[in-house]
Amino acid sequence: MGNLLKVLTCTDLEQGTNFFLDFENAQPTESEKEIYNQVNVVLKDAEGILEDLQSYRGAGHEIREAIQHPADEKLQEKAWGAVVPLVGKLKKFYEFSQRLEAALRGLLGALTSTPYSPTQHLEREQALAKQFAEILHFTLRFDELKMTNPAIQNDFSYYRRTLSRMRINNVPAEGENEVNNELANRMSLFYAEATPMLKTLSDATTKFVSENKNLPIENTTDCLSTMASVCRVMLETPEYRSRFTNEETVSFCLRVMVGVIILYDHVHPVGAFAKTSKIDMKGCIKVLKDQPPNSVEGLLNALRYTTKHLNDETTSKQIKSMLQ
Question: Residue limits of the CYRIA/CYRIB Rac1 binding domain (predicted)?
Fold first, then answer.
């Protein structure tokens, strides 16, 4: 993609800084390889996680039957037999969120370190920037699928209720080794979130900032706002868009732009919507609204419902009405 993604970053960052983010072909330089390889081990499992989540059908029928016929042992066994392997999947998803969190922290460390500015980092470490984008892209896709699948919480609630009943009656529970009580509590909190992966990432980013007291918070927030600007410019400039070699790159850029806005809004003290924000929110929302409506409703909802500062008094009426 080379020069195609040569874009002018947002003027209030580093005026006149020309650089491109090659989301399609970026390869790691020698200095990036260590972090890149660590993150790659995690990312190579991401597609499989999404496929498993997409095909997650739940045990709603078996659970209903068991609840309606509490005295029928066969139906109880059938429901339990259906739920246990599903909880194994839910455990795998949760454990992946922990691996993703560690990967994100490694990337943040590399992309915010001194002496380089965020723009210089993104320009010099394109492959790491691409991985950061891929984590955000995965996160929004995971959460979109999770939000539309109520079976996940129903299955897990049934599993926990049945397990505690078995304990009371001293019935040995196969599969209990799978998820002990402490892990079950953490999984419950995770799946209770509307957007669990996004919550994991925003908590990890906030924690990264608070643990690195010697690193100005701007190093992290400017990295996010620069990335949002680059995505917006690539999307709103017809000559760049027309030359994307892969049609998926448009939806990739849209998701990444929304992901970094949400992270910025959670990490920055005044958030993404204030007048002083380094993200052009009106421009970003306009880019979203210019897409076919059915393709971006999930992303607009993510801005409406998973940001932190949208409803603050400091958010302009115009931005609020654009998102209504």
Answer: 18-320
User: Average of pLDDT values for 64-91?
Assistant: 94
Range with lowest mean pLDDT among 49-58, 186-195, 310-319: 310-319
Coil, strand or helix at 131: helix
* Residue 306 vs residues 65, 148, 303: alpha-carbon distances, Å: 36, 15, 6
Rounded CA gap, 49 and 282, in Å? 34
Of residues 47, 90, 265, 63, the one with CA closest to residue 190: 90
Report the distance separating Cα 5 and Cα 25, nearest Å: 11
DSSP structure string for 13-66: TSTT-EEE--TTT----GGGHHHHHHHHHHHTTHHHHHHHHHT---SHHHHHHH
Query: What are residue 118's phi and psi, to 5 degrees?
Result: -55, -40
The model's confidence at residue 19, banded by pLDDT at 50, 70 and 90, is: low
pLDDT tens digits, residue range 42-62? 999 999 999 999 999 999 999
Closest CA to 261 of 237, 240, 283: 283
175's torsion region: left (phi>0), alpha (psi -120 to 50) or beta?
left
User: Among residues 173, 135, 141, which one has the least CA distance to residue 263?
Assistant: 135
Cα separation, 196 vs 94, whole angstroms? 9
Sign of CA dihedral 153, 159, 161, 164: negative
Residues facing residue 8 across a β-bridge:
18
> Within 13 Å of residue 123, how many CA atoms lie on the same side as its CB?
15
Give start and end residues of each alpha helix (H) in the chain: 33-43, 46-54, 60-68, 73-112, 118-124, 126-147, 151-168, 181-192, 196-211, 217-236, 238-241, 248-267, 281-289, 293-306, 317-322
Residue (of 194, 319, 198) closest to 267 by Cα position: 198
pTM of the predicted model, to two decimals? 0.86
Collapsed DSSP state (helix, strand, coil) of residue 125:
coil
**Token representation of residue 271:** 């958030």
